[in-house]
Specification:
The protein is α+β, with helices and mostly antiparallel strands. It contains 27 helices and 29 strands. This is DUF1738 domain-containing protein.
Length: 816
């Protein structure tokens, strides 16, 4: 979570203070904790804009604490501009203001676009993004804290009659009747669009999560009408967190953990606060239930000790009441399963169709045997007849023994009203996708007198199943290195991949995990089908959660990796790098979890080691780079000295040519230009590279492994080829040039890894020449090197080459 500024911390402390004081006072006020004077829902004065539920809660609490007569608030600057400045020494209340300047892809947290880019998207693409809230904290003041009551007493009295307390508004029987009608209409909207509400004779209101039904006592069973209304609100808020309702996360299911006693108590707090805000909307006071009064001490302690709890309360209160508002406005709150099925069907419509059944059908119509294929649809009373040929619209285009009218009459006798004729292929070819054959009967048939004889049947059940849905070997929710939840999907017979699910789907999964473990496998299947179809239609949604080689190091330097759980319970990773066994390092819970899900466990362990020991690998790379830089610097110094001598010789030669005839001068000038071109190439090539080029001329058909310090290196085309075969990094050196004056292409590996890499080159069909140092290298000059071994495909590696040139006579084979 983002670190809060000092201003945000003070604002949170103020919110906690208001809430804890109200809850504590309820113990001595018969449960009353909010809006005892019956004011209306908080608004911004004078424009009358309503505020979010959590903001309304904080503003109303502040208004109650200060004894204000309304819940109308204004900003300091706006009050001053109206000539109604805030009075001296008055303290405001924090107000959370959100704007949306960025939008993030629902299934790819790394895909963030600007508000302007979002506006240019199509309506369909916009559905894939959601706004990223940018929170600002502003300070508001109640109009009673301003000079309005004195500056414009008439305006002040008018607003109190509209938005003030019950007494100021003149609440009477007429208003009470209107309230009852409003509550009854609200309850009916909830029944129609959110959850079933039934009367219960036990006298105890409760929400049955298994049946998704609210049981509510009769109104006359409550002492006060307000108590009946608030209990109804409590149960409705509880229903917004049901496992089948994509509503809100709920603190009880954070990170997918089963609810603890503490979590249940915190969820009860959300129920009381959210129902209190609904009472505020109706202009009614809010009370805590008897059970809740016993939890006040726990709530106040948690609010003071947990600085993040107030943020969770904000999210949950707003989330719960947002769902109620949708239902109140007539929007059907769709069950999660229905929504998944609808979304999956939409995505599947974008997938490539399969035609296995149609391809099979076209093999069976036979003119000689007079057989056709008939596809019967009992539900729609239709039949498709696939002829060997002759499906022309012309009536007289018939095949002997396959009269279309006779087929039509026979099938109509069976009850099929609509009969259509097709060919196996062509313009009138029969080629629906596999899903078309769901609940249809397919037979190979022929005419027998005036009826149809079915010779055999074709079973398309499996093809229909796989036309849309697909089986999965593994479906898991795992966390990536940034602790974001990802859904790993392994389809049957295909490579696995991961996607980032939408938050609503995560909520559904974890709510089910909390409330109904019996349904968790079904939810896994729903999510897998949905996101498989989505990823197939949009492959860019697939992400790698098992880690690539982001450190740009040679993974083959890591010889051995072991990941294990120590006796202390800590997960550790031990690795052997460049032949050295390193001290084990800690593995995070998410990394440990991904280990058991990874499709290639060995590859993942190697990538994990590369991540955990990146400093070791990078340090070695820096040492190697420093050595190369020193060698290149020494080479450049020598080249500069050589160039100075050559320039002096050139000037001397030009002075000697001045006294010669003009034709001889011209010829000498051309010779000098030719020498310049030859020298330019020679100067650009270091002695080490020249050695490589000389040896490469002798073995042009072999990959030359060139020993340079503690590494075997390949250059130019050899480097390109070796990097592809061995999977090592291909680089280009700006300090070294090849014989064409271009940066030298290079790829290499540690000398002790030769036994690992050499077999790979041989198995790839390459002939390999190994060049070793024949003397100890000096600081500024290139040491003498020679071919020490030639290995060809099919030849046993490790046998020294027999005196291929004079340079190898005094050196034994590198291989042992």
């Amino acid at each position: 979570m983002k670190e809060k500024s000092d201003f945000e911390k003070r604002a949170a402390e103020k919110q906690v203070s208001l809430l804890t004081e109200a809850l504590t006072s309820a113990v001595d006020a018969k449960g009353h904790w909010l809006n005892a004077s019956g004011k209306l829902y908080p608004k911004l004065y004078p424009k009358g804009f309503s505020v979010s539920p959590f903001n309304a809660l904080i503003l109303a609490l502040d208004s109650d604490a200060k004894g204000c007569k309304s819940n109308l608030f204004t900003q300091f600057s706006e009050a001053k501009a109206r000539g109604e400045s805030v009075r001296e020494h008055e303290k405001g209340v924090p107000f959370l203001y959100y704007n949306w300047n960025k939008y993030v892809n629902r299934n790819n947290p790394d895909d963030v676009i600007t508000k302007e880019a979002y506006a240019e998207l199509s309506d369909q693409d916009k559905q894939q993004y959601k706004g990223v809230k940018n929170r600002e904290i502003r300070v508001l003041f109640n109009i009673d804290q301003t000079l309005l009551p004195m500056a414009n007493e008439t305006a002040y009295t008018t607003v109190l009659k509209k938005d003030g307390t019950v007494e100021d508004r003149g609440y009477g029987d007429k208003e009470d009747k209107q309230l009852h009608g409003r509550v009854n209409g609200f309850l009916q909207k909830m029944k129609d669009n959110l959850v079933n509400v039934r009367q219960d004779g036990t006298g105890v209101a409760h929400y049955d999560t298994e049946k998704d039904v609210i049981y509510l006592p009769r109104q006359r069973d409550f002492e006060h009408y307000n108590d009946y209304v608030q209990e109804m609100m409590r149960q409705l808020v509880s229903a917004t967190g049901h496992q089948q309702r994509l509503a809100r996360e709920g603190m009880v299911m954070k990170n997918g953990k089963a609810p603890s006693e503490d979590a249940v108590k915190k969820e009860k707090l959300i129920t009381e606060l959210a129902s209190g805000v609904k009472m505020l909307e109706l202009g009614l006071p809010a009370r805590l239930s008897k059970d809740s009064l016993g939890m006040v001490d726990y709530w106040t302690r948690e609010l003071k000790e947990d600085p993040c709890l107030i943020d969770a309360i904000e999210s949950e209160v707003n989330g719960a009441l947002k769902v109620l508002k949708k239902a109140e406005l007539g929007e059907k709150v769709e069950y999660a399963t229905n929504q998944h099925q609808r979304e999956t069907a939409q995505m599947q419509g974008q997938l490539p169709n399969h035609y296995f059944v149609a391809d099979e059908i076209k093999q069976h119509p036979n003119e000689e045997q007079r057989t056709v294929v008939i596809v019967r649809d009992d539900a729609n009373k239709t039949a498709d007849v696939v002829l060997p040929q002759g499906a022309s619209l012309e009536v007289n285009n018939e095949i002997k023994g396959m009269n279309k009218q006779r087929f039509t009459n026979a099938l109509q006798k069976e009850g099929y009203d609509n009969v259509r004729f097709y060919n196996p292929d062509g313009a009138l070819g029969f080629r629906p996708d596999d899903s078309y054959f769901a609940d249809k009967k397919i037979t190979v048939s022929r005419l027998r007198n005036w009826s149809i004889e079915d010779l055999s049947s074709l079973d398309a059940t499996e093809a229909v199943i796989h036309s849309r849905d697909i089986g999965f070997d593994n479906v898991q929710l795992v966390k990536d290195d940034k602790e974001r939840w990802a859904l790993y999907i392994k389809p049957e017979g295909k490579e696995g991949f991961a996607v980032y699910p939408d938050k609503g789907d995560l909520n559904h999964f974890f709510t089910t995990l909390k409330q109904s473990m019996d349904n968790i496998e079904r939810v896994r299947e729903e999510l897998a089908q949905k996101y498989y179809a989505m990823a197939e239609a949009k492959p860019d949604l697939k992400v790698d959660i098992f880690g690539g080689n982001e450190q740009e190091v040679d993974l083959n330097r890591i010889q051995r990796v072991a990941v294990f759980r120590a006796k202390s319970g800590e997960c550790l990773c031990a690795a052997t790098i460049d032949g050295k066994k390193l001290q084990p390092r800690s593995v995070s819970p998410s990394q440990w979890q991904r280990l058991w899900v990874a499709p290639d466990r060995d590859s993942y362990k190697q990538s994990l080691a590369a991540s955990l020991f990146a400093d070791v690998l990078q340090k070695d790379n820096n040492v190697e780079q420093s050595t190369q830089e020193k060698q290149e610097e020494a080479t450049e110094v020598k080249q500069a000295e050589t160039a100075t001598v050559e320039k002096h010789d050139e000037q001397k030669e030009m002075a000697q040519q001045e006294d010669k005839p003009s034709d001889q001068k011209e010829q000498a000038s051309e010779q000098r230009e030719e020498k310049k071109e030859e020298k330019a190439v020679k100067v650009a090539i270091s002695p080490l590279v020249q050695q490589y080029l000389d040896l490469k001329k002798k073995h042009p058909d072999a990959i030359l492994l060139f020993r340079c310090g503690d590494f075997y290196e390949t250059y130019k085309d050899d480097a390109v080829k070796a990097s592809k075969i061995l999977g090592i990094t291909l680089t280009k050196s700006n300090g070294r040039k090849d014989d064409e004056g271009k940066p030298l292409a290079m790829a290499g590996f540690p000398y002790h890894a030769l036994d690992t890499y050499l077999p790979k080159l041989i198995r790839a069909g390459e002939r390999v020449a190994i060049c070793d140092q024949l003397e100890v290298p000096k600081q500024t000059t290139s040491s003498k090197r020679g071919i020490t071994e030639m290995v060809s495909p099919g030849k046993e590696a490790g046998r020294p080459m027999a005196q291929e040139n004079q340079e190898t006579e005094q050196h034994t084979s590198l291989r042992r």
